[in-house]
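Notes to self after the Tuesday call (sharing in case useful).
The group wants a holo model before anyone commits to mutagenesis around the pocket. I volunteered. Ligand is flavin-adenine dinucleotide. Logging inputs and output together so the record is complete.
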Amino acid sequence: MRIVIVGGGIIGAALADRLAPAAEVTLVEQDRPGAATSGASYAWLNANDPADARYHSFRVAALDAWRRVAAGFGDPGWCRFAGNSAWAVAEPERDELAGRVARLRDLGYPAEPTTAAGLREVEPSLRPPAGAVVARFPGEGHVHGSAAVEALLGRARDAGARVLTGTAASRLNVRADRVTGVRTATGDDLVADVTICAAGWRSPLLLSTAGAGLPLVDAEAPGSSAPGLTATTTPVPGLVNGVVHSPGLDLRPTPEGGLVLEAADLDAATDLATSRAELDARAAELLDRARAMFPGLTARLDRVRRCVRPLPLDGRPLVGPQRPGLYTVVTHSGITLGPYLADLVAGEILGEAAEPALAPYRPDRPTP
Ligand SMILES: Cc1cc2nc3c(=O)[nH]c(=O)nc-3n(C[C@H](O)[C@H](O)[C@H](O)COP(=O)(O)OP(=O)(O)OC[C@H]3O[C@@H](n4cnc5c(N)ncnc54)[C@H](O)[C@@H]3O)c2cc1C
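Result:
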């Protein structure tokens, strides 16, 4: 079977890795693999929202898939299950965190109320203020997106996949309602039995060339919630082991010992019109908040990146056939879900049997 995958982010890379041993796979990436959203993501591996029990257990299965991937690569530095530490100081956040821990525990998910002293046993640098509500989620982790993409595509190449970088798919080729592959920007036609759209937030543009749509939040609209902001710092080895959610600042380590910084308010204020100067000012604010958390922190900003979520209108994955010969895999939380989705999608494409776990997430379902 000939399969063309458009997009070399975490979704395309996980799919190429999973499909290459059994099919003739070609992946086309217009830039560098991992250069877009996946490489700049906060990339917290979690099933931390108990609101939708079915989607929660889907994400728990996705964490297991990552554990298998990590084991297959010999537990690499780019994928760590070092847990998540969170605290809240003010209402309503205190109530929300305590309630979430209780509901997750009811679902059998590892979520533990703890204290500042208890937290210091696993994260000695963290100092939640007295009276904070503190929680640990020991089964969660984080991934360094670009390294993960590189490793997955390396293994896909070893299994025979072709990876064409700097190669844009300018359109889907359609014959008698069947998608037969892609036309590249250089005018070459890549012929496929199945073409997979894994082009992240740019997927609607590609799909429109075959008359297909996708219910994503419009990333280009002013004030859109799809674009976000992350910044990384120079190395400060050993400061934190895992993911941290604190009032006004989220952070996690990079494999080089730096920090990835993110904050919900600064993220929400970022859209595609935000100027470079404004992005830099917000990143400086992130660093100030990190200095307030770790007095004496000497790290400087390393990279400041705007990145765009492929954000389905109802927040859930969009996975499945859209036309004969065309299969779409686009999702928020794609870092958490990538390897699990790749397992399920490979089962459907190679086994030709519909995967029940994907039934709620078809792209043609009614969305708000
Ligand atoms: C600020 C932020 C924080 C996030 N935090 C988390 C988190 O904590 N946990 C989590 O699980 N997820 C998180 N996400 C979401 C997650 O990062 C994304 O869901 C995931 O990276 C999407 O991966 P992707 O492969 O679909 O997209 P991308 O990584 O964007 O890859 C798509 C690729 O397709 C290429 N492409 C597009 N069009 C074409 C074309 N026509 N031809 C060829 N190539 C093309 C692009 O160049 C790109 O490389 C976050 C996202 C953001 C923005």
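Two things stood out.
The mean pLDDT is 97.
The chain has three domains: 2-41+145-217+313-361, 84-138, 218-308.
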